Amino acid sequence: MIRHQIYAIAALIVAVAATVAAGADTRLNSGQIATSLAAVSNTPNLDLTADQMRQAVLENIRNYPGALPPRALTFPQLANLAQFTVEINFNFNSAVIRPESYRNVGAIADALHNPILLGYGFLVIGHTDSVGGRIYNVGLSQRRAEAIVAALVNPFGVNPAVLQPVGMGEEQLRDPAHPTSGVNRRVQLINVGKKFCFGRSGEQFVCQ
């Protein structure tokens, strides 16, 4: 248990360091991303689906109506998992990835092709700032997360079976004091453990 806690703390430290580096230099290093996402070698299989997360987002808006969420929506199951945060630029009010961000998407793809990450599944979580309505921003962030997954799959060849896009809208602002700030517009990748696929005959195997 102590060793697992040490691994989890190390993962958070690495993830924070990687996020700071990403903010300082948009030329991301795929090795850095891969190391961050693999920081916890014994990542458990996550008992939380993308659909459950989407439902929790909508319930948060319904239970706490208003222009801004009164508190960030949290998922304790994700707190200690290896993750990496990166800024991806989109056209205004659109899910079209801007050309300058394809280098970052490519770096993410290279990381996901790294042998140390093969066989793992990942949440691709989109976040927006507070410009626009909360329900609208959930849909926008979902479309953006799906656009990133689509770009990772084609042209970069990542297996779509290991990626789950989820839109959080503005329910997890990074800087609640400045809800319209660009730092709130970001994408998280979270390692959710080994991802299993099924063959035509029903046999189970680790996705590659």
Notes on the protein architecture:
- The chain has a 4-stranded mixed β-sheet, with helices on both faces.
- Helix content is 37%, strand content 16%.
- It is α+β, with helices and mostly antiparallel strands and 208 residues long.
- It has 5 helices and 6 strands, in the order αααβαβαββββ.
- α2 packs across α4 (102-112) and α4 packs across α5 (134-153).
- The protein has one domain (2-206): OmpA-like domain (60s Ribosomal Protein L30, Chain: A, 2-Layer Sandwich).
Write the layout of secondary structure elements.
Blueprint: H1 2-24, H2 30-37, H3 50-63, E1 83-86, H4 102-112, E2 120-127, H5 134-153, E3 163-169, E4 186-194, E5 196-198, E6 204-206
Parallel strand pairs: 2-3
Antiparallel strand pairs: 1-4, 2-4, 5-6
Helix pairs in contact: 1-2, 2-4, 4-5
SS-based structural class? Answer: alpha+beta
Strand content: 15-25%
Helix content: 25-40%
Dominant shape: globular
In round numbers, the mean pLDDT is: 84
Distance between the termini: 29 Å
Order of helices and strands: HHHEHEHEEEE
Count of extended strands:
6
Proper CATH architecture: 2-Layer Sandwich
Number of domains: 1
**Number of DSSP helical runs:** 5
* Major sheet strand order: 1-4-2-3
Largest sheet: 4 strands, mixed
**Which regions contain 5 or more consecutive residues with pLDDT less than 50?**
1-26
The CATH homologous superfamily name equals OmpA-like domain
